[in-house]
Amino acid sequence: xxxxxxxxxxxxxxxxxxxxxxxxxxxxxxxxxxxxxxxxxxxxxxxxxxxxxxxxxxxxxxxxxxxxxxxxxxxxxxxxxxxxxxxxxxxxxxxxxxxxxxxxxxxxxxxxxxxxxxxxxxxxxxxxxxxxxxxxxxxxxxxxxxxxxxxxxxxxxxxxxxxxxxxxxxxxxxxxx
Length: 177
Known about the structure:
This protein is mainly α. It has one domain (2-98, 135-168): Bromodomain-like (Up-down Bundle). The chain is 75% helix and 2% strand. It contains 9 helices and 2 strands; from the N terminus they run H-H-H-H-H-H-H-E-E-H-H. The chain has helices spanning 2-7, 10-35, 41-63, 69-96, 109-115, 118-127, 130-133, 144-155, 157-172; strands at residues 138-139, 142-143. A two-stranded antiparallel sheet has the order 1-2. The radius of gyration is 19 Å and the shape is elongated. The protein starts with a helix and ends in a 5-residue tail after the last helix. 32% of the residues are buried. The mean pLDDT is 81.
């Protein structure tokens, strides 16, 4: 297993990550336009995290760096995926609250983006609202934010693989005297 992982290039890791991001976005868009589930503000920020990770993987696949460059892309990808894990985890937590503990619904995301600074919008959205605590879909006993959290955890394997590949590649070089 380690032999296969150590042989995969940064480009191959990146292509796997990019394909998984495309799958996650495809499911999200199908749920929105095919099924009719409107995304809440936290769902939108989860999509931003997926697209951020996809952008890192796309650039890494095009660049196909050697040496420490793979670690840089891996850390950037891990930051994007980590942000997705944090937002999805917050979403799962909000949905687990008893109804009387759920924060009240605030104004819509579109309205907040028009009248508030970006940092205020981020803090309000991440604090959650009643809209984000509603459970609109369950599949195999898990809510959509739980599935998204699982997706981000699985996706985290890719940037970690990129970092390990880069480290293994450095260690495999012969020592110079």
